[in-house]
Amino acid sequence: MKKNISGGLVHELPADLVSALTKTKEITSLWEDLTPIARNEFICWVENAKQAKTRIRRIKRTVEELLEGRKRPCCWAGCIHRTDKKPSKWQQDVLIDKKPRT
Length: 102
Hints:
Elements: H1 15-21, H2 25-32, H3 36-47, H4 52-67, H5 89-96
């Protein structure tokens, strides 16, 4: 199975995600059919997990969402690490500045 698969715009693919994405040719093909921006969103979502169990769950969900035909992670505000676009106000307030909800 091909182990050298495409990453995202900003993020490189971590080994645990590569392992999940290369389990079958179908999953690898679905991943490769995504745009670099979409791949970046999934990678950032996985990398942003604070706990190992959350990371494992997100990797599993990435594969499930690809098989469901989704192109972006469900309920993810987007990668704040991209330099080609300015973060939205919500991303700036919540993800970058860590302002509490009011």
